[in-house]
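Journal club side-thread
Mid-discussion, someone asked how the predicted structure for our own chain would compare to the paper's figures. Pasting it here so we can look after the session.
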Amino acid sequence: MNPAKLEVFSTLKEVTGFLNIQAHHKQFTNLSAFRNLEIIGGRHLTEYFSSLYIVKTSLTSLDLRSLRKITSGGVAILENSELCYAKDIDWSKIMRSQNHNTAVQNNKKANRCIIEGQKCDPQCSRDGCWGPGNQLCLSCRSFQVGQECVPSCDPKLGLYREYGNNMNDKQCMKCDKECALTCRGQGPGNCDKCKHATLSTPKGPVCVAECPEGKYNDPLLGEYLIKLLPLMNILI
């Protein structure tokens, strides 16, 4: 079977029993078709009392980016000659059962993985990763924006950090699409500069895609109002 047909599982979020993968195909290199799978229940187990069983496949990485909980059962990942990354995963972060074991053995040798550059991205934490790049980390070393792990909430990348009630929150947020890159916070009313046009409202200037009928854009006035807004907030 062509691995492309596995895309039928792309919306799957939970498996109540077990996931048993035993397939070898030159195009079958990862499990990205299960990218939205979050939970494996383990109500029924397969060999080695496993709820995740991956044996003798052609996989090079797992790519189970959304998997966050294996409720019951063990993990057996064995004899996958091209598979890297699995050994570096801290499975204790995912497995909930204290009565089942993890067997990750006889896969691609660690030194070959390192030589070939098949190792976790520097922005991944010590929890490990599902595959290459900064979007497949179990958790981030520094900050996260969407699915990506990044070193900082760099304003030059159109990001900002919103603390809320948690000063240790490691989430970065993207500036509004109407901002010309940098911003002070969420929404089109917190841009440092507008990408297209500036609309004056009772609550202050807002960046918009185009001016409404009967109005025109004055770039210089718009920039002045946006620069003045933080001062007005302080005075209020």
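Post-session note: The domain at 152-235 is CATH 2.10.220 (Hormone Receptor, Insulin-like Growth Factor Receptor 1; Chain A domain 2).
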